[in-house]
């Protein structure tokens, strides 16, 4: 079963596999980030701009939202020949819940200049399997396959993949499928027990120096908690070919009342 079913030109229904981790009757935001990426790419193709690719995606998460039908919208904020800025958003339960601003740039052959990427991670076959439901409830977490090496609390490397399509009966790019897993970075190498400490992210920003190939997503992750209630999760992004970008998630850190 896919994570979403299209119910109209701009509406989507989440399936049971989108159930959240902080609260299981709410949506896990990860699939929504993939859906918005898919819509940005689809809008580009509708406008005849398939020469542009996403190189930065900045998502703002406005608040939790329930497992209800969502309405989406896409608009071009800054058109251009070689660079465009596109915004897409989701409304659920009568309020806006997630937005993305995506910079799209024209492609070109820079093979002779390529270099500087971090070293590849040990592959998924070299990394021990780990059950993420050890730390988290929720249907989305149960739907993913994880490999993990934890160096210490808040520091480790993870490989993650899913066998579920993003949108039922729709062709979805490797980028959109991969972005639909990005948000798990904050939960796979936790610094504190999420049953005792809340550390949800209010955003996720990623910069890409090439397109991911799909399949396994590798995360080389560090989690920092500050002394004033803020935190930061930072990850270098990998596929089985090597590094392809980086992401950051700003956290709100709060102790939970027993």
UniProtKB/TrEMBL annotation:
Residues annotated as domain Acyl-CoA thioesterase-like N-terminal HotDog: 21-104
Organism: Krasilnikoviella flava
UniProt xrefs under SUPFAM superfamilies: Thioesterase/thiol ester dehydrase-isomerase
Domain Acyl-CoA thioesterase-like C-terminal: 124-249
InterPro entries: ACOT8-like_C, Acyl-CoA_hotdog, HotDog_dom_sf, TesB_ACOT8-like_N
Pfam family, one: 4HBT_3
The protein's name: Thioesterase-like superfamily protein
């Amino acid at each position: 079963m896919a994570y979403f079913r299209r119910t109209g030109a701009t509406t989507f229904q989440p399936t049971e596999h989108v159930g959240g981790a902080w609260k299981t009757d709410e949506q896990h935001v990860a699939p929504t980030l993939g859906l918005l990426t898919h819509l940005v790419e689809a809008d580009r193709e509708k406008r005849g701009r398939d020469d542009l690719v996403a190189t930065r995606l900045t998502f703002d998460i406005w608040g939790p939202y329930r497992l209800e039908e969502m309405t989406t919208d896409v608009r071009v904020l800054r058109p251009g020949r070689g660079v465009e800025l596109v915004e897409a958003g989701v409304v659920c339960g009568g309020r806006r819940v997630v937005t993305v601003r995506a910079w799209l740039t024209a492609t070109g052959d820079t093979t002779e200049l390529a270099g500087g990427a971090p070293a590849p991670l040990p592959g998924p076959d070299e990394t021990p399997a780990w059950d993420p439901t050890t730390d988290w409830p929720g249907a989305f977490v149960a739907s993913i396959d994880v490999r993990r090496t934890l160096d210490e609390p808040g520091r480790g490397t993870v490989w993650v993949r899913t066998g579920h399509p993003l949108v039922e009966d729709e062709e979805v790019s490797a980028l959109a499928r991969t972005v639909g897993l990005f948000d798990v970075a904050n939960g796979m190498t936790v610094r504190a027990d999420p049953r005792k400490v809340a550390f949800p992210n209010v955003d996720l920003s990623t910069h890409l120096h090439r397109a991911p190939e799909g399949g396994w997503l590798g995360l080389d992750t560090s989690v920092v908690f500050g002394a004033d209630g803020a935190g930061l999760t930072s990850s270098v992004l990998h596929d089985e070919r090597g590094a392809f970008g980086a992401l950051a998630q700003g956290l709100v850190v709060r102790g939970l009342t027993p």
